[in-house]
Design goal:
about 350 residues; DNA polymerase, domain 1; TIM Barrel; 2 domains; 10-stranded mixed sheet; 12 helices; binds iron/sulfur cluster
Length: about 350
Amino acid sequence: MDTRQVSQSKESDNKNLLNYNIDELACLIEALGEKRFRAKQIFGWLSKGINSLDEMRNIPKALRQSMADEGLYIGLPFAESIQTSKDGTVKCLFRFLLADKDPDTGTEVESVFMKYEYGNSICISSQAGCRMGCKFCASTMDGLERSLTGGEMLGEVLAMRNLTGEEINHVVIMGMGEPFDNYEEVARFIRLIHDPAGYDLSLRNITVSTCGIIEGIERFAEEFPQVNLAISLHAPNQELREKTMPVARKYRFDELINAARAYTEKTGRRITFEYAVIDGVNDSKECARELASKLKGWLAHVNLIPLNEVDGREYKKAQHSNVKRFKEVLEKEGVAVTIRRTLGNDIDAACGQLRRRG
Ligand code: SF4
């Protein structure tokens, strides 16, 4: 695991209005000599995805000016590069500028907009880079640059909505980064986007995907039982998991499965296991049988993902016939399973590749 120091600009975070909840905004506004009720109005404006304080039309000019004088700003990222697929998928490399708005600095992350029958969804990043070191992933190849704040994650959703002109009613935190390596800010994001005075997104329309940080899973079950949880498993046992996911050395396979099972018992909710099917590594019939033996009989669901091949990584996508066979074995054993529909086939699908090329 890359343990490089994570650089965060705390000063910039405090100036980005998107990071504030209503109570915090009320304190801020009170300190500027204004009435607290303005906080709810400002929060509502921010959730619309406005770019400038001047767009807050029912907020007195004097207050807008005082906020600007304090260096407060709306930290929406701008689109550094955009790829659009024939099926409507939009992949965007967003750049967050700091308070000084210097275009040569800032942090880049990827977000992907996808259209499904049930609605529009966005996959957002929770960190720029990642320190988990999964062997098949591009996001981790340069380590972790820094974690995003909750307001920046909200900024990804708002900026994507502005960009596409489409409503977004599902959010998946499955882009760059490990959400539970940045638990507090991911929790802040969920509370911000769920707030009825703002974006008002249902908790059931949010999914968090972890590579298996057990204390995060336990805490999440307590604090967000209505939010969907997915675990990137990618192997049926400890030995194989350790080969592709260094995190498995700390959070061992059996302990992870026990934590997942405890989660389903506590919340009464199904848990999804993501399984990227890799050619000749984890796609055999034996692997499928072993996985089924660990997951059958409880609220587990397996999502088989055709691997996104990454430049500079040795792993290849499993053949479709093997993915199908894998699915059949799980089904026969009574384990719920789906093969993830591949969207954005004609654009750079693997998460983290766009940023590396940037
Ligand atoms: S798969 Fe997720 S947890 Fe693993 S290195 Fe990539 S971004 Fe990090």
